[in-house]
Amino acid sequence: MSKQTEMTIAVVGDVHDLWEAEDAAALRHLKADLVLFLGDYGNESVEIVRQIAAVDLPKAAVLGNHDAHYSASSKGQQKCPYDRAREDRVQQQLDLLGADHVGYGRREFPHLGLSVVGARPFSWGGSSWRYRQFYRDRFGVKSFQESTAKMMAAVKSAEQETLIFMGHVGPYGLGSQPEDPCGKDWEPMGGDCGDPDFADAIVQSRQVGKHIPLVAFGHMHHRLRHTQDYPRKRVVVDAAGTVYLNAANVPRIVDTGTDRLRSFSLVTLAAGQVKTISLVWLNQAFETVSTELLYANQSSLK
């Protein structure tokens, strides 16, 4: 099977209940070759996940902290609006997504020459191992080290040399300022809220010969809490040439009164390199009304 040399990857950051039937149509208008869904569909919003699972395009998905809002923590369990003894909405979401859910797993796209590997699902981020019982019972994982090992099992079984990594939370190491991709923007300000197990998996993946052009994640919203003067830093490139994209543009759908606009992050991948990343807004007629170029690889544009 011949591999596609240039492709468009649509990245959908934190949904937070803002997903509609028109979004699937918009993805088709954008001619997306692959769609990455980064979690936080709602507070265990099974019906939103059902709609996303029905998107008829090549896709991969992870689940975020809000997708286990009433199940992972004792505080959340106390506020749970349904009977957890009779209903398991976390498992319902996993079942709906099926093989498209790549948290601690992988999805193969041989026609694109890619394997997509998922980081730890349902992550809250940070350097403390939280929600021990949840991760032990759901995934048999009891530490960051075991979490990295679970990701690496997926990496080592990946069929393609080129990997795209995706997670709800980004990896540790992208900066500790409030405006950095995983930076803490609430009091006390500052601190890296990235996932250390994710960072370790990226390093180990390179050691086993994998090429990683893109790491996509969300969780830390573009709109900063402490200032409206500028948004969060959304793209970082490391020394190995891997491009890290925070795609958490929230809210991703805006009603202007005369139109309804929806946003997607679009990544162009060519010859195993990220060529461009743009944040685009489409109107109700699926026309692009705004394009913000977030990244351009000058060498790949020549």
TrEMBL record:
It holds the Pfam family Metallophos. It comes from Vasconcelosia minhoensis LEGE 07310. It comes from the Bacteria. GO terms for molecular function: hydrolase activity. Gene3D superfamilies: 3.60.21.10. This is TIGR04168 family protein. Residues 7-222 form the Calcineurin-like phosphoesterase domain. InterPro entries: Calcineurin-like_PHP (IPR004843), DevT-like (IPR027629), Metallo-depent_PP-like (IPR029052).
